[in-house]
Specification:
CATH architecture: 3-Layer(aba) Sandwich
Shape: globular
Strand order of the largest sheet: 7-8-9-10-6-5-4-12
Order of helices and strands: HHEEEEEEHEEEEHEE
Number of strands: 12
Pfam families: DUF3710
Biased composition (Basic and acidic residues): 12-39
Radius of gyration: 23 Å
InterPro entries: DUF3710
Biased composition (Polar residues): 1-11
Distance between the termini: 74 Å
Number of domains: 1
Structural class: alpha+beta
Helix content: 10-25%
Protein name: DUF3710 domain-containing protein
CATH topology: Protein Transport Mog1p, Chain A
Largest sheet: 8 strands, mixed
Strand content: 25-35%
CATH class: Alpha Beta
């Protein structure tokens, strides 16, 4: 016969429960990119001809096209360019490039973090599959109760970088307009550089050489 009282047995069971903490959710670190990324973009700097014309913004290069307006978003406190906004065909594409590990990707993890953050703020978040891979469609309240704002978050993992984009305006809901913005996104070139960087660090952006800040469309963020 066991000499263990019910109280002792209860304490032992409680101790056993404390030793078995819930496992952390597994993070998908696989790269997320179109199968033809190397030939159809978005490109790594090593994958495009050196003589092809681009607007050089440092960590990102933009292929010029008629009707495309470029604006640089600047963090006034840090005095640094933090994003590139491209206005085209009644749509807006805002892009940022980040350093990433060589063999693993960031987009799956980043996409989950964005969904959790915006969902906690009251936005409606839907996970969808697009031409670039997994993306988020976010619906949030506008300046009044009747207004609904739509934004699509897209991302592509490349060689040691992540290119992330936010699609707004007409392309957030119109399939034809979205296809034009996806084409614009795929024409971008990421310049990661050879220097070691921790994962998720924003690649440095700059005002194009030969242009004053006003001419480059710089806007304080």
């Amino acid at each position: 016969m066991s000499d263990e009282t019910p109280q002792n047995e209860s304490n032992r069971n409680a101790d056993e429960l404390e030793l078995h903490e819930p496992a952390a959710p597994e993070v998908d670190d696989a790269k997320s990119a179109p199968v033809d990324r190397e030939t159809a973009g978005p490109y790594d700097a090593s994958e495009v001809p050196a003589m092809r014309p681009y607007v050089d913004l440092g960590g990102i290069k933009v292929a010029p096209r008629e009707g495309l307006q470029l604006r640089l978003e600047v963090d006034e406190r840090a005095q640094r360019v933090v994003a590139v906004s491209l206005e085209y065909a009644d749509s807006l594409l805002q892009v940022q490039a980040f350093s990433a590990p060589k063999t693993t990707g960031l987009w799956h993890e980043v996409r989950t973090e964005i969904a959790q953050q915006l969902g906690s703020q009251g936005a409606e978040v839907a996970h969808e599959d697009g031409d670039l891979g997994p993306e988020l469609l976010v619906r949030s309240a506008g300046t009044n109760e009747q207004e609904v704002r739509l934004a699509r978050f897209v991302g592509v993992d490349g060689p040691r970088w992540l290119l992330r984009g936010v699609i707004m305006g007409r392309a957030a809901s119109d399939a034809e307009a979205k296809a034009q913005i996806v084409e614009l996104f795929r024409e971008l070139v990421v310049v990661r550089g050879d220097d070691p960087m921790p994962p998720s660090e924003l690649l440095e952006l700059k005002v194009p050489a030969g242009l004053a800040q006003g001419e480059a469309g710089v806007q304080q963020a």
